[in-house]
Design brief:
The chain is of the alpha/beta class. It contains nine helices and seven strands. The protein has one domain: P-loop containing nucleotide triphosphate hydrolases (Rossmann fold). Helix content is 45%, strand content 16%. Helix 5 links the parallel strand 5 and strand 6.
Amino acid sequence: MLSKVITIAQQKGGTGKTTLSVHLALAFIKYHNLKVAIIDTDPQGSLGKWFMIRTEKKVSNDGLTFKTASLWGAQYEAKTLKTDHDIVIIDTPPKIESDARPSIEAADLVLIPMAASHVDFWATGAIVEIAKQANKKILIQINRSNQRSKLIDKTNDFIKSLDLLSTNTIIGNRQIYTSSMGEGKTAVEKQKKGNAVDEIKSLSEQILSEIK
């Protein structure tokens, strides 16, 4: 068992935390044969709604466990799930700031999604500071962004200014990510090939190399 925890955190809403959480989870299962648990700590319950649709449609949940927890209960839940799962992914709500500490302290890796957007730059500092104070490994994920965007270079400069690394993969703003979620699935289950599949598979490989 790897027994590693990945916390996906960002205080700005709309950065794609939940979509990223489930796509990574299914990539770890499909491409790496790992047992994965996902914890929904967001009161909006988007992750729970996705899992409920998935269950109603009888989509296979082999290798996948779903739990809910409060932000403060996530640390206990993650510790429990680590005993029989390779990877535990904690999906956190926006606007969490100091409340994020238990979920971040439980993590082996803090993955912070942000779009190539000045608004996202402004929102990222607080979560980075909490993760740095907890002495956690941090990766920035440029998410829901066009690789050809004029802001990509500025985004990379901003990440360097925080003395952080970004992943090697930019996740595009692709329809398949959102449409598959509405069906209780993920892009890697809906498609065998494609840009989304390549992105998620590549990201899953890098994250595994970071936490092993």
